[in-house]
Every structure is written in C-alpha cells, then in structure tokens.
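Quick illustration, no need to memorize.
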Amino acid sequence: MKSSRIVPVSLCVLILGVAPACSQNGVEPKGAGTVASAPVELQEGEQKFNANCSVCHGIGGVGTTQGPPFLHKVYEPNHHGDAAFQRAAANGVKAHHWQFGDMPKIDAVKPVDVDQIITYVRWLQKQAGIF
C-alpha cells in the first residue's frame, strides 16, 4: 500500500507567504511586495495614482500584466526625470523599455495632478531603494 504524504495547510501557507514578488521582467525591486503607508502630505498623490495609474502600473507602482513597475531603476530620476512623467501623461508614450505596448495619454490628469503623482512615485522609489 502506498503511503500518501499530507502537507499541513499551515506549512503551505508559510511557504507561499514567503515566496518573493517580482516585477514583469523577473527583476525583483528592493522592497517588492510591501507597500508602506504614504505620509499624510503624499496621500493626495497616492489617491490620484491609484485612480489614474494603478490599473497598469499596480498599487504601489509594482507593475501589472498591463504596464511596467515604477519601482525599477529605469524610472529613477536620472533616467526618467519628472518631465518624462509629465510628457507621458500629456502625450502618451511609444513603448521603448518594455513589451506592454504604447501608453495612451491620460486626459483625466492635469499637470498639477501629475506633480502630486510624481512626488508619491519618487517616495515609493526611495522606500524601495531605487535611489
């Protein structure tokens, strides 16, 4: 008679619970899987990010199957400065770093909204050790 091996549910949860989260390109940013609460002064930017950007870029900027993570070195200020985020929202972007397709312009956000979103994203990046 074959003996069947039963793995306790708690062990499965533990194993699955410690599996690392990773970005679309298989590179795990520092701090992936954990999104700290934004400071009060950044919560409006966080809300605007969640309402206008997170469908593609993920809650906390971790990326989705529809868009790249902002918690990646390619989006650090020295490579994609704040003006690049403004242009992306206003004009859209042709795909160039990722294979997600082109980003459409986002009519719902105005430059002042994008400024708040950028401040929030830069805070997320600092929390993740991107810069």
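The domain at 40-127 is CATH 1.10.760.10 (Cytochrome Bc1 Complex; Chain D, domain 2).
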